[in-house]
UniProtKB/TrEMBL annotation, chains A, B:
<comment type="pathway">
    <text>Amino-acid biosynthesis; L-methionine biosynthesis via de novo pathway; L-homoserine from L-aspartate: step 3/3.</text>
</comment>
<feature type="active site" description="Proton donor">
    <location>
        <position position="207"/>
    </location>
</feature>
<keyword id="KW-0486">Methionine biosynthesis</keyword>
<dbReference type="GO" id="GO:0009088">
    <property type="term" value="P:threonine biosynthetic process"/>
</dbReference>
<dbReference type="GO" id="GO:0004412">
    <property type="term" value="F:homoserine dehydrogenase activity"/>
</dbReference>
<feature type="binding site">
    <location>
        <position position="107"/>
    </location>
    <ligand>
        <name>NADPH</name>
    </ligand>
</feature>
<dbReference type="Pfam" id="PF03447">
    <property type="entry name" value="NAD_binding_3"/>
</dbReference>
<comment type="similarity">
    <text>Belongs to the homoserine dehydrogenase family.</text>
</comment>
<dbReference type="InterPro" id="IPR036291">
    <property type="entry name" value="NAD(P)-bd_dom_sf"/>
</dbReference>
<dbReference type="InterPro" id="IPR019811">
    <property type="entry name" value="HDH_CS"/>
</dbReference>
<comment type="pathway">
    <text>Amino-acid biosynthesis; L-threonine biosynthesis; L-threonine from L-aspartate: step 3/5.</text>
</comment>
<dbReference type="Pfam" id="PF00742">
    <property type="entry name" value="Homoserine_dh"/>
</dbReference>
<feature type="binding site">
    <location>
        <position position="192"/>
    </location>
    <ligand>
        <name>L-homoserine</name>
    </ligand>
</feature>
<feature type="domain" description="ACT">
    <location>
        <begin position="353"/>
        <end position="433"/>
    </location>
</feature>
<dbReference type="InterPro" id="IPR002912">
    <property type="entry name" value="ACT_dom"/>
</dbReference>
<dbReference type="InterPro" id="IPR001342">
    <property type="entry name" value="HDH_cat"/>
</dbReference>
<dbReference type="GO" id="GO:0050661">
    <property type="term" value="F:NADP binding"/>
</dbReference>
Amino acid sequence: MAESLGIALIGCGTVGTGVAKILTHHANRVTTRTGGKTVAVKRVVARDAGKGRDPAIPSASVGTDWTTAVADPAVQIVVELIGGTTTAKQIVLAALAAGKHVVTANKALLAEHGQELFAAARKAERVICFEAAVAGGIPIIRAMGESLAANQITGIQGILNGTSNFILSSMADNGASYANALTEAQRLGYAEADPTLDVDGSDAAHKLAVLAQIAFGVTAKPSDIEKQGIADIQAMDTRYAAELGYTIKLLAEAWAADKTVALHVAPVLLRKTDPLAQVRGAFNAILVTGDVVGETLYQGPGAGMMPTASSVVADIIDIAVGRAQKTFTAAKLWSGSREFTIVPSEKVRSKFYLRLLVKDEPGTLSEVCRCLANEQISIASVIQHEPLRETEKVVPLVIMTHLAETGRFRTAAAVIDKLTSVAGPAVYFSVDD
Amino acid sequence: MAESLGIALIGCGTVGTGVAKILTHHANRVTTRTGGKTVAVKRVVARDAGKGRDPAIPSASVGTDWTTAVADPAVQIVVELIGGTTTAKQIVLAALAAGKHVVTANKALLAEHGQELFAAARKAERVICFEAAVAGGIPIIRAMGESLAANQITGIQGILNGTSNFILSSMADNGASYANALTEAQRLGYAEADPTLDVDGSDAAHKLAVLAQIAFGVTAKPSDIEKQGIADIQAMDTRYAAELGYTIKLLAEAWAADKTVALHVAPVLLRKTDPLAQVRGAFNAILVTGDVVGETLYQGPGAGMMPTASSVVADIIDIAVGRAQKTFTAAKLWSGSREFTIVPSEKVRSKFYLRLLVKDEPGTLSEVCRCLANEQISIASVIQHEPLRETEKVVPLVIMTHLAETGRFRTAAAVIDKLTSVAGPAVYFSVDD
């Protein structure tokens, strides 16, 4: 008799339904890909067990009590899809203690409790797989952890939040304001009613923390990842960026040098010809730099029922094949490696886009330039148009700098903010050339 | 004592030197990534054993006799990098028979002898790994074989030949003729003195055969893959394509439907906004469509010393970790699967770009259109400029069609070729919208 693996799906919303669909509708395919093992959903745990569900989910298996599901001897793999970090953590620890493997799409859980969970998995001699936790259907976890194993990764630039990318694409393509683009994203289901965690960079920061663990072995606390969201970007910024040949994208970046790594999430101006600049709508993409291979790019759907389920099922198949167990043992993730140290981003050198609203009077440009010069920052170009109306006393001033240390640029910007000729805070983004 | 793996490098040109560099200069990294096993080059086989080499290659280990190297009990993995299909096949079979695992970058060998070699590997209970055989540093073999395991792949579109892509990029960017772009590519080392196998689609066809094996389990003979090279593309074609909003790329394509798959290599017009249209110079990229995940894109360096070595060393690490053995057993590649049948591309539906040189006289356009109409092909747009000089009696005529069956389009083109008002053969490419 062919060996069989039982799955408990804890959480049965969009992604859980997608996983059940694949395992049910494509059962033969999954058996072929595992090399002959059948995989079946034995338990489904949902808040409302009586709710009508997709026919792929056998109603007899649906319950509300995760403890019974996790303890079921017919279950070998627990798939945690409820999100959050409290109950999810209890479920994962209980599953491991009961001798089950775990598959999760929960980046927040990994970012916050990775070390504890992975220690528990090692103790239980079980695995935690998480391809779906970052960039949905894009196999970035395997790419960085296995395919690029000959490399020390030196840089990561990722569009990891589809909501933000959708909003920025609308702003760039249609000249929409941030507020209008957000409303449109909400209307189309790309943004939640409260979009904060997507647009302030929190979601991307969680994902970056997971990628940084794989690439550098560092366990990043939330405070280790500087975050700047997209809410301050104005329609004029996307317009000026375009005028200069750039597109603004929210990037999660990691830059390594001399066994240190700087991690941050921020809007960045990318040349229009940069592959990441071309990534539209809710798609995700990650540009990974390895010291041996150079740059490789991975692009695809970053969320959604079936793309995310594709990654969850790939993990299930990996466990069935026995590959995941080999990877888990060799990779030693969240084991407290001290090879790399996380450093603040202030030492990272970058070009900068600086947009000010200044009083249209003599001497203003000279004052601003002096503030930059005081920090040894030289200017590459300046855009200052005529005021639109003659009565307008405040005009936008855009400056592109040459390479400068982030910390020194911030110092200069803080001084510029205090100039009496400057109305409103400096808006600035780094520029990737 | 930590376990140790010995490597025999058979062939020590560019890629072999790159592999030796990684294993020597980054020995600690490799040991960490294998979970503690050391990996060392024990034998190097080269045509000229006395030749001066990179310091990474210990001269004491260099010889000219592959049989001794393959038989050495200190060797557990044989890395075949000599290319060609005769001696390379003997080496791989001998290595497997001697109980060694094999890593190869040889797409021609796999395309032509995959079935025999994989049968020998299964018999010997050893593995053949080949990440470097397709698209150099891009981990497309793992992506398709492992990461997308939940999917039936339904489409592949790959820029798999860097030489052709370099030439086409030059033609598009600088308006160069094919001949001038080729000369430039040769001067810069992107094209060989005899570029035939690169520019006629043979190299890309070998790589497509390997990808088709992974995606569909089909063993494609050379005649199963229709090939059209880039030598017929004229400067005016890249110009007209640009005028219509397209870029011409040499694509290796696989399209599956109803358990059949069509395989071909040909120039294709891609919308300028298509991610594959943006791939410049010698880079490679593959757009993979899966029935669950949708489209994912993989892009990076398709050749070169270190990118290719990155993939070879990833395979070595996979064998050391034990992952490759699990994959090899489960994937059953080149085992004569009959799930998919290869069909000719004539049934594939596509839009077409048709460029003719026609006599500038009344009735010509009408005649051409009638030939298309006879095959039920409708026309989307026509470009016919004034002749450049009044004395010019032959002018280019460009027609874009709506969707049509490839076979019927070819029939129409053959009829058009015989029209007395048409000077010179029809040049046509499919158009991807």
